[in-house]
Amino acid sequence: MDDYPLLNLFWTMLWFFLWIMWLFLLFRVIMDIFRSDDLSGWAKAGWLILALVLPYLGVLIYVIARGKSMGRRDVQEAKERDAAFKAYVRDAAGTESGGHKGGHVEDLSKLADLKDKGAITEEEYQRAKSKLLV
């Protein structure tokens, strides 16, 4: 360790970090090339060849030329995933926004409230709950 100064260690770590970050960017660009709907097959092939044959220059050119649309695609994909997740949660909960779909989550909640307020007995609550869950 005496023959490798601390400054060289920091430089090595910096270059390693930059190399890893560049690899992430390269894979991100390649993924964006394939998910882009506005590029034809030949354009995708051209961008991919450029990114693989001249990796540093190809990635830099791609980010400069298509970076803004790359960001828009990311935002659109995030919105679609969020909408799909919300639809899944609504479906799993058994309710839709704006109406009752046939799930009984709300009914069970109302029954529990009635039981807590003393409006119905435990026996009535269990009977009504079993009817809802059948």
What does this protein structure show overall?
- By secondary structure, the chain is an all-alpha fold.
- Helices cover 80% and strands 3% of the residues.
- The chain has helices spanning 6-35, 41-53, 55-93, 105-117, 122-133; strands at residues 95-96, 99-100.
- Helix 2 (41-53) packs across helix 3 (55-93) and helix 4 runs antiparallel to helix 5 (122-133).
- The longest helix is centred in the middle third of the chain and has 39 residues, at 55-93.
- It is elongated, with a radius of gyration of 28 Å.
- The N and C termini lie far apart (72 Å).
- What Rg, in angstroms, do the CA atoms define? 28 Å
Order of helices and strands: HHHEEHH
Average pLDDT confidence is: 86
Distance between the termini: 72 Å
What is the count of helical runs? Answer: 5
- Segments where pLDDT lies below 50 for 5+ residues? none
Secondary structure tally: strands: 2
Q: How large is the share of residues in beta strands?
A: under 5%
- Name the shape in a single word: elongated
Briefly note the structural class of the backbone. mainly alpha
Largest sheet: 2 strands, antiparallel
